[in-house]
Inverse folding.
DNA sequence: CTGAAAGCGCTTACAG
DNA sequence: CTGAAAGCGCTTACAG
């Protein structure tokens, strides 16, 4: 193992104290009135020796690590991969590096990861939580780790949270289906139904149909048996008391499971079935028919979440009346909701 | 800001030295013959006070941080998102947390990120590099940061590298196209043509056609203007000296750009065009026609890369004759390569 | 303008 | 069985 270059090495090579070197390298040369010449020699030596400060030492001293933890349910899910990328760019631009962790919607995993990261002294945590209430995470925050929720909230008086207009988006999809003449919706929800985003998407959707005195059929799909459950459900539609004429997939994975089931069973039987999805994917505008979907404002969500975190970190965050920030979504109307025939 | 619990706090609360507390908490109680009773009291106090060791301090002392850096070109690219997820699971299981960073195939960014991470004293680096040669990265490794390449190598005598059988996969696709009667291939490559994976996929493909005395047309697509370039190219196929009857997309983004161009221009004109892709995506088996693709052994690649890194970390890595490890790929034959009609 | 010294919270010989 | 002490590499009052 090679010995790394330290402040002392530079100090010796230049013939000054390491105090001076530290000051200069941290850009405080001016402020402390260190002569331009000395500064230059120090900087030159640092370059020469390829000095890179030991972050662990610096962190120990300053209490800051320049790291952020991002907890999502699954980094390989397209939505979170996109979110992670945007967040990474924001963070890197400010000199942070980010730990990205997947929780699989599992509170135990989530807590273990949060604990690990807070033990690593991350300067902040952004989490798409699977918790049912805010208690545990509030303790983390109150223990000194700035924390903001993303994509899901835990109530208006708890933690700062940045979410999409889930209820509104659900309603948009419902209204659009109604306008197209669909009257027998089947909602594909998730077994993790306590998660605010999932719950609100469904509520918004169901309420809108209710106004027209139409009741939605709801089926919750297992998070880990998604493809299997969806396949089963779609194969047995005739057993439902109301045979649906359209489907609402509550997230992108569900829509993909639906489409791949359609594919496997021969798409013809489903020609007339409307389909909408909460989450937009690149391939939704490639496939035939193209899929009507709600697009989330991922960029804006990341921006705001990062802002809030920054504010918590530097202590400038002022309490607002509500700390849930809801950002508008966009409805992308495509072919999957064009009614082919007026079937009673 | 809340004061965090330290070893000293525990020591005082139990009435022993912090040496003892440290020993016990690190599971060396037995080894140092500390009485069971004392151990229990220490552990109880640690629980009670919710003690979490300050990693920065520990790292400073031990030189280990328990962190790994993963550099890929873009975490929002499905292939890397998947790779990152698998790698994360392996790392987390061993108590590591991983920094995931995107380089955008940009060497400058890549070097900046690698420098940041090595300054954070990561225990190791796994990188899907955009470098043209191994020099710079070898310096990093020789500077004390264990490092293994993934997905791309930099020559057989340089750095440990785990890659897919890119040349072999390219050849498989070519052979399959030939068997299906395609004779005028257009290869969609990338402007980053120095990258080993891209180069080898194309070489393997081209060589196979060459055996049949067929020359491939090759066009390199800009990494940042992908959709635009592909659109342009496909709109002007008639200007090529040989009008192609099949396309080879060298990675998944290219294939998606092709499909979305087909879609935009009305897929009918392209009905007879064969299409193959290096990289498989979930939607390839949903879309119509389904897409023939080569599937990479992501799981195995991650496993091996992690293993090699671990070996470098604990110093047990022995030099092999070559340090490029090539893992077999799988050809998934689907509808996009079924010739509809024998056109001359 | 510059340096000696303390201290961040750990781990680990060393001494008893 | 247990504790005092050194030291990892920084930053930052403090003193001159």
């Amino acid at each position: 193992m090679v010995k790394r270059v330290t402040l002392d090495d530079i100090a010796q090579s230049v013939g000054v104290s390491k105090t001076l070197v530290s000051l200069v390298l941290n850009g405080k040369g001016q402020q402390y009135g260190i002569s331009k010449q000395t500064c230059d020699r120090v900087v030159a030596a640092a370059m020469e020796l390829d000095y890179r400060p030991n972050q662990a030492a610096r962190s120990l001293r300053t209490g800051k690590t320049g790291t952020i933890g991002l907890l999502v349910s699954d980094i390989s899910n397209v939505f979170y991969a996109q979110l992670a990328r945007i967040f990474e760019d924001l963070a890197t631009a400010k000199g942070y590096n980010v730990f990205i962790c997947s929780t699989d919607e599992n509170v135990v995993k989530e807590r273990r990861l949060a604990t690990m990261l807070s033990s690593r002294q991350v300067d902040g945590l952004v989490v798409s939580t699977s918790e049912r209430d805010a208690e545990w995470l509030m303790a983390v925050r109150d223990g000194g780790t700035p924390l903001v929720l993303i994509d899901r909230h835990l109530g208006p008086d708890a933690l700062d949270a940045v979410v999409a207009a889930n209820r509104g988006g659900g309603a948009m999809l419902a209204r659009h289906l109604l306008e197209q003449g669909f009257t027998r919706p089947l909602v594909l929800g998730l077994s993790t139904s306590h998660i605010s985003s999932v719950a609100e998407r469904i509520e918004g959707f169901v309420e809108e149909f209710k106004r027209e005195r139409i009741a939605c059929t709801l089926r919750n799909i297992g998070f880990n048996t998604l493809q299997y459950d969806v396949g089963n459900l779609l194969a047995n539609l005739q057993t439902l008391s109301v045979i649906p004429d359209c489907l609402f997939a509550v997230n992108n994975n569900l829509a993909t499971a639906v489409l791949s089931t359609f594919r496997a069973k021969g798409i013809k039987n489903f020609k007339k079935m409307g389909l909408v999805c909460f989450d937009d994917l690149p391939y939704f505008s490639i496939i035939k028919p193209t899929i009507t979907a709600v697009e989330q404002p991922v960029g804006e969500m990341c921006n705001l979440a990062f802002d809030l975190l920054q504010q918590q970190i530097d202590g400038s965050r002022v309490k607002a009346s509500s700390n849930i920030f809801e950002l508008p979504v966009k409805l992308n109307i495509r072919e999957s909701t064009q009614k082919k025939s007026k079937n009673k």
